[in-house]
């Protein structure tokens, strides 16, 4: 049996792989994670179920990889935040963009489905952090370190805490639909965080 | 058919109702929400499946009510935050207690299961907010308004934003298991938020 990992992209069946990942992303958006089945993905992609099971051990694994293909580079490589020299302006740009992504059904539905799984599956959560979240977190920290050097952020600011204050309220309002998720909210988060950790 | 609502607590079958809710809470902790069935709840509670369906329309509804019984008063009535006159100390007490609850499997497992449902069910999310969250939020805002009067919080502070900054990072670390959830983190959240919104 093949190892449980994403297929080598050089294989001839690359087209099937793309079709499967596209089908998984579309179907999780249309049906939600619970009602999504491997059968439905196979039918939409025009492949046999066994083709999917040859490459992925579970429904969760396919959906996870389908979301990885949404991110810009492989494993977030090359992700950089804007650095115009104005931390407040740059963070507002980034948080407004994040809020806009959360408002886009094509983008948010598969990530919502994945989050449901992550909440109940510590191992999948760890994979998620390693593959998707860590590269983004590193890019954010690079921007914050640049701000420290520019004297726009307190030299002793705990960067994990700064990122929690910026992003956790945004993520929570999105996941729990507990309040408006607009540019005013994004801006208010940046302003409050910089009052707490500005120079 | 009986209306889809929790039974009148005055009915003779109050003992069955309590047994069902206890079974639901225990089983969601032991099995997780996905593997939990109405059959299993009925067997553990020593009642027939039809007894459960007479009172609750779905698995989600039983689990939801089983969690309501965890909160102190009916619908959170009478919930008050400590008010010693020292906002920072009181918020640290409350956030440390919240972090400790999240570390207690008997408490956190059913709420984790409920959150999974809420993320995918906007109607259930609305019920959750109305029944469980709103009374707690009102109690927290009463404490923050008292702090405004005492000059310990900026008079124009947006209380929803203050609560988001205090609680969303805590909730996110718990739900996604993305970092340590200890007293140091609770204290750091209170200190950062008060730097942003203190007088």
From TrEMBL, chains A, B:
The keyword Transcription applies. Residues 37-56 bind DNA. PROSITE patterns: HTH_TETR_2 (PS50977). One of its GO terms (molecular function) is transcription cis-regulatory region binding. It comes from the Bacteria. Coiled coil: none annotated. Residues 14-74 form the HTH tetR-type domain. Pfam families: TetR_C_11, TetR_N. This is TetR family transcriptional regulator. It comes from Amycolatopsis antarctica.
């Amino acid at each position: 049996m093949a190892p449980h990992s994403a297929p080598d992209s050089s294989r001839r069946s690359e087209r099937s792989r793309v079709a499967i990942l596209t089908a998984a992303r579309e179907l999780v958006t249309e049906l939600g994670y619970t009602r999504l089945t491997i059968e439905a993905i196979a039918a939409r992609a025009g492949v046999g179920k066994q083709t999917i099971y040859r490459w992925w051990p579970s429904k969760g694994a396919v959906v996870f990889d389908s979301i990885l293909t949404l991110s810009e580079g492989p494993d977030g490589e090359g992700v950089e935040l804007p650095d115009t020299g104005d931390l407040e302006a740059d963070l507002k740009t980034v948080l407004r963009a994040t809020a806009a992504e959360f408002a886009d059904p094509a983008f948010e539905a598969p990530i919502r489905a994945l989050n449901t799984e992550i909440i109940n599956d510590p191992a999948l959560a760890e994979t998620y952090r390693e593959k998707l979240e860590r590269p983004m977190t590193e890019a954010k920290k690079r921007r914050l370190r640049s701000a420290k050097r520019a004297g726009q952020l307190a030299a002793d600011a705990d960067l994990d805490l700064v990122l929690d204050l910026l992003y956790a309220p945004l993520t929570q309002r999105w996941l729990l639909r507990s309040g408006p998720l607009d540019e005013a909210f994004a801006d208010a988060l940046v302003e409050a965080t910089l009052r707490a950790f500005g120079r």
